[in-house]
Amino acid sequence: MLSPYVVSTLDTQGTSQALTVIDDLAYIADGTGGLKMVDVGNPILPTLIGGLSVGSAVQKLSVAGEIVYLSTQAESLVLVDVSDPTEPELIETQNPGGQTRSVAVAGELIYVADREMDYVFFLTLILYRAKY
Q: What global pTM score does this model have?
């Protein structure tokens, strides 16, 4: 049986909420630290190569091509261009209402789980057309 062990660590300066790794690049939803990109090509020496503060705590993310889709604590869906991961650029912010909890991208659709603040908590699915 394999036993996992720590290879290395990296302080992202935020509160990591979620991550996705594609090839040698880790995309991190870093809470109040925003979006962080880390080169993990050498797992012994992960290197922070880029980041972007979006004005609210980033909770979840999804990556499709050169776009990262973020769900934030401020009820927002945030789109970020990461074609140059050392210099990510904000594309746009959408406010679907309620509280955005998670985001996923499949084909031309963006799926957003949204928690309404009411007496009863529930998740609704909001679909956007991906235009980037």
A: 0.85
